[in-house]
Amino acid sequence: MATLTSLKHSLVQRVQKESSKQPLSDAQYTAGFDVLVRDSERTTYRDFIIPQLSQLLTSLLESRTRVSVLEIGPGPKSVLECLPSQLRRRVGRYAAYEPNALFAARLEEGLCCMSETEGALPCLESAADIRRLPFELGSTDSETYDVVLFCHSMYGMKPKRSFIERALSMLAERPGGGMVIVFHRDGVLDLDGLVCHRTACFPAGVVRVADEDEVLDCFADFVVGFSVDGNEAVRNDWRKVCRALGRREEAHPGHLVFSAPNVMVAFTQHATSLSGLTALVPLVEGEKTIKNREARVHRPAAVVRPTEVQHVQQCVRWALDHGVGLTVVGGGHSGHCLWPNVVSVDMGAFDQVHILSAGVDGGNHSGSLVVAGAGCKTGDIISKAMAAGVTVPLGSRPSVGAGLWLQGGIGHLARLHGLACDSIIGAVLVSVNSSEILYVGHVPSQHRPAGAVRPENEDDLLWAIKGAGTNFGIVLSVTFKAYLAPTYLVRNWVVPLSNDVEARVKLNEFDDLVASKLQPNCSADAYLYWDANQLHLGVTMYECSTNSLTSATHAPTPMSAVWGPENDVKVVDSVGLFETEMYMSGMHGGHGGDKTSSFKRCLFLKHIGEATIADCLVAAVKTRPSPLCYLHLLHGGAAVSDVPADATAFGCRDWDFACVITGVWPRDQDGTEAASSAVAWVYSVAEDLLSLSSGVYGADLGPDPRDDALAVKAFGSNRQRLARLKHSVDPRRVLAYACPLPKTLTEPKLIILVTGECGAGKDYCADVWVSIFTQTSLTACAVSISDATKREYAVATGADLSRLLYDRVYKEQHRPTLTAFFQEQVQQRPRLPEEHFLDVVHGAGEVDVLLITGMRDEAPVATFSHLVPDSRLLEVHVQANEQTRRVRRGYHNGDSKLTNNITPTSTTSYHHPSIAFANNNPGTSAAETFAQQHLLPFFHADLHRLATMVRSVPDFPRPSISFRHVLGIAQQPGGLSLCTSLLLTYFAGSWANVDAIACCEAGGFIYASALASRVNVPLILIREAGKLPPPTVSVVKTASHISSVTASRSGEKRIEMESGVLRRGARVVVLDDVLATGETLCAVLQLLGDAGVGAECVGVLVVAEFPAHRGREMLRRRGFGEVHVQSLLVFGGA
């Protein structure tokens, strides 16, 4: 499918005389633009532009309540009009440069309405400022904006870097900065060293044009940027070109289709900061040689080549300081090792290979080790290892680098020794969160850089590096377990296939009679390809042995019995093995004579001889767009599948063959329709095989959105664990363009933990509450956390899982042994409750409300809230009298006394559930009323409005911390009044029973004083020692979270309150601005206790809670678990 760029080039070539070119009038430009955006472009807006712009604006709005936007060339309608309502209402000021008078008039008409309930941007503080002028470098516009938006490309703006720099100069200087956002259609956006904050691509964009002369005339004028009115010969030529290059689709008869890929690039004030990095780290000299065809067309901002560990650390610090990403270049085989307008880090200087004999490093590891730098190629490692008589099970190509070993690595020793990542026992890397040098696993002491430390999450990092290692830091070196170097006997068969039936028969023979029967030291790869006008099945069998092998003495194989003698036989060592691949020597003249480019995606298959899969494979080769395309089936099983799926990040273990779908075309056709057709074929075949596959190889996948569907099946059941770890170790997304991991699912806004005694009706209530939420347009679901334990119990004991899940009587019979089983599991796996909780949360999908039953933990909010720091957790304790519970559980008079199903996992003090519900009455009425009165209010618009007043301040009080300015609420118009009203309303107790409100300086003073005035109770002030007149009561207080991260304020201090201001046993509400670590609150509660007010007399209100710091857990550990804590807002971060 031709792109708009290639179409433009062909059209312009048809114009012989410059005098034939006439500038487009506003009417002609408008007509052409309308053709372009009609129908087809709506997909690009819906699936790419609107989601990308929404994400960027949402991130900006974390640090401000309104944004100002300058749009360059918006056309007849601002793209902002298509945003969700909650974003459109946050645009406070809008201006635009639109030189087309017709467009400007339509734009102004759409934005002119200023009423609160109508209009595209209903909350503009002044009328939209539409300037009927082009955006020029020499403009004298002195206004500043939060966002400068180029939504319809930058055609005609040259040099583009200068226009972006002009836009950058117009960004407002305020906390959180601003953004220049560019959407550019069709073509590479080379910006000469500008560094982007974020970028994304949309290669699937298309333009569909009606195949009518008048429509094609308008369209062609717009594409070339001029008109040839009056030159009918050129007009006719242009129509012919459009019809020749446009593709026709059955789904859209009467239309021509052109490719219109789109790219988004966002810049901040740091876009011109590259010189700060290149002053510290050397640049690559000359052109960087990259193997991958995809990567070669990208234009990175720069490629730096660190030569020492400190250089890599400086790259990470620079990226963190400027809010940008990095890519890493190893062997250059990855399609995303270079990325447009992103700095690439070439690790080529880290190319040392060290072979260590058993025990020489002073460790306890038996056998030889190989320590390889991240710049090493597979061939270098194998050559040096073989010289020492050992080898490592790496891949089959000598030029691939660290990306292969870290993301799997499928080679000819995989069936005997496992994947390359399975042999990794240690690694050294630079953290992309702190720039520290870390080492994990077994790293010989002499190969640990100075200053390297073991991280607290060492086990998780080593686990992730073994299969998804390009995502979790910049790896400097890897330590492999080595094996004795074998000799290989290589045999080849090539079988011509006369028809589809024979192809299916031969694939079935190969799968059933050959591949499944081979010993682990043997593997058989297959190639399905077209050559000499016929389909062929080629097979290469590899037999390895540490004993001598010769071609003259080889034994017959199952293959020989089925297909006869082999075509050729070779005996090679580990280095010679690289040249035995059939696609390198036996197909298409040796892979097109080494003058080809290729594109690959790989899926894992079982039972390739089954009719459905075999037919799909054969059909794939028959529909190839180029004679050179083929399918490569790499043999798996044996040692690959012996490793448990959760033992490493490489979770796809259950497969017989890795099917590499390989699109190939002549290298001189790079960038043409031949190349794009081959790529489209690869994705089409992958889509057909996806539902038949047992997984996808993640090593090939990149930021291309066409990889999203494939990425869902990469990493198997480990996907969510990897996503959580990625969020933890790379929160700033420095490695945003590495092999894609699933994004951490948006956690529910509200998670309700439904607890209670057996028979209280927890599941019933949860179902009722789900129905109440869904009636208000919220998405909600209820799940049982105990189902996971029941499944494991059923497997271990043979119990009937279906009856455990759905038969109450059967479940009650198994309850004692089920409980004992769970307790035993927790002893063996202390983190099991957390694992079950996260599995339930992420398994529920993206819902607004998640209700979880079957909880076995005391104080579940304190236990689990830090795992989902962006969600509000509530515990609703369902109660019922014993007689009611007895009836619900099927007990009769005389039966034994009921027992509780709570299984404490710790021995801490009593806790206070968020809310209690008495469920004694039959029917749904009481449960429905409870939900309406106590649960739905958490979605009230006033709470959302209050949350928008808390802006996010990046890198405060130190880099890498995103500070939530909770006190800033009081500085917003109406903020203090709104907050006070919400505190008054959401308090779970009765204000009539409250004797006083206590608060600690300084944040608590602001909100507590306003609330005490409204409630008309005394305000008890708690201050640093020495600031109140005697007599006082005082206690030691450890530094709060923010104070502890500020260098000038750390350690302990004393806080005090005046003696006698509270009577003993007074009922007190403690109010503070935030709950983070809980240190301040614990000190206040201790102080109140010393003053005669016990924890049982105290309730706590906070404006904002930060669960990541585990404040509730701290309260419980200090003996204050019974204190009822309520928070208006919940935020992740600081």
Automatic annotation (TrEMBL):
Q: Which CDD domains match?
A: PRTases_typeI
Q: Which GO biological process annotations does it have?
A: cholesterol biosynthetic process; isopentenyl diphosphate biosynthetic process, mevalonate pathway
Q: Name one GO molecular function term.
A: phosphomevalonate kinase activity
The yes or no answer to whether the keyword Flavoprotein is present is yes
* Domain FAD-binding PCMH-type per the UniProt entry, residue ranges: 296-485
This protein's GO CC annotations? cytoplasm
**Which segments of the protein form a coiled coil according to its record?**
none
Instruction: State if Electron transport is listed as a keyword.
Output: no
The record's PROSITE patterns line, in alphabetical order, gives: FAD_PCMH
Q: Which Pfam family, an example, fits this chain?
A: P-mevalo_kinase
Keywords noted in UniProt: FAD, Flavoprotein, Oxidoreductase
Q: Note the InterPro entries from the entry.
A: FAD-bd_PCMH, FAD-bd_PCMH-like_sf, FAD-bd_PCMH_sub2, FAD-linked_Oxidoreductase, Oxid_FAD_bind_N, P-loop_NTPase, Pmev_kin_anim, PRTase-like
Q: What name does UniProt use for this protein?
A: FAD-binding PCMH-type domain-containing protein
Species lineage: Eukaryota, Fungi, Dikarya, Ascomycota, Pezizomycotina
